[in-house]
Amino acid sequence: MRALIWIVAIFAVAAGIAMLAGQNEGYVLVVSPPWRAQLSLNFVIVGLIVAFVLLYVLVRILRKTLGLPGRVGRYRARRREEKSTRALHQALRALFEGRYGDALSSARAADSADASSFEVALVAARAAHGLKDARKRAEWLDKAGQREGGRAPRLLEQAAFAIDVGEFADARAALDALREGGHRSVAARRLALDLALAEERWDEVAELVPQLQSERALPTDEARRLQRAARIAGFRRRISDATETAAYWRDLPKEDMADRKLIAEVVPMLAATGQGGLARRTVERLLDDEWDSELARQYSLCAGEGAEADQALKRAEKWLAAHPDDAGLLASVGRQCMAAQIWGKAQSYLEESLVRDARADVHRSLAELFERLERTDDAARHYREAARLAKA
Fold first, then answer.
1. Rounded to 5 degrees, what are φ and ψ at 40?
2. Where are the alpha helices (DSSP H) in 239-342?
């Protein structure tokens, strides 16, 4: 229907033009002495239109002809880009599938088609790293660093490769170069954390973990585990100095004071420096909030002396009324009774703990108790059991 309307409209316009041309009696006089020419106005109009169309077509042809080299160049560049992209995709697929040799070959093909891409060079470097070829890996990393936009990615990859192969000095140099260049990213901080863990630089771990956790780059469980390991390492470094150990304890943040596993690990170290009493209130609060048998087992180490020890024993016996079958609490109360020289209760509680959960430390406590009571045969028997369980 639309085509029919156009045909009718074209015929109508043609008919109108024909009618106007038929009524037009004008002419154009062209004089160039000694010649003169008289032309119909209709003929001149048609001639001008035809000339304009021919000139337009000629100009278009000329422009296309002059632009042909550029079009050919763009076509070749597009073909090179398509070839490079296709080869890069093949390299990535081979890399993810663990076919490092094929990945390196495809990356070379992509690089020969487009030698300006740092991404291709990094893919090749990863493939060379998978092949354990340090020389080729270094060559491709150098190429990536020389290309536009490739400096930071190259340093990140270099640090990751160095950590992977244990070249920690090179990894730290790469990360330092990134920081000096003003680069700040989650990837760089994650690599710094991996390096700090590999080198056991626990103070740095404790500093990096909250940063990564605030950026949601670390799961909560992993962050807590790493922070706990860092704090425990910090206590171990200071265990020879009671003053430093106490100061480090007082500086622990609230989230660490709420970590039951951390407190259970730290209490023996505090006790080893004579600072066990510092943790007593914290242990009591945690046990009152939620019962924890392993933490209760450590309570005797922070019971203190004199009046404080009496108060701690009363507190433990109250817990025992609520948890009469808890092996950890029984062992702790037994040790507290030993410290108070209540030998009968101490023996009863320790033996009851062994019935529920036989552990080497409880056997050792009973052996020490029997030594004090001059029951050498019983003491020797428990020492042997403690040694056997320790080896197991």
1. -65, 140
2. 242-250, 254-257, 260-272, 280-289, 293-297, 307-322, 327-339
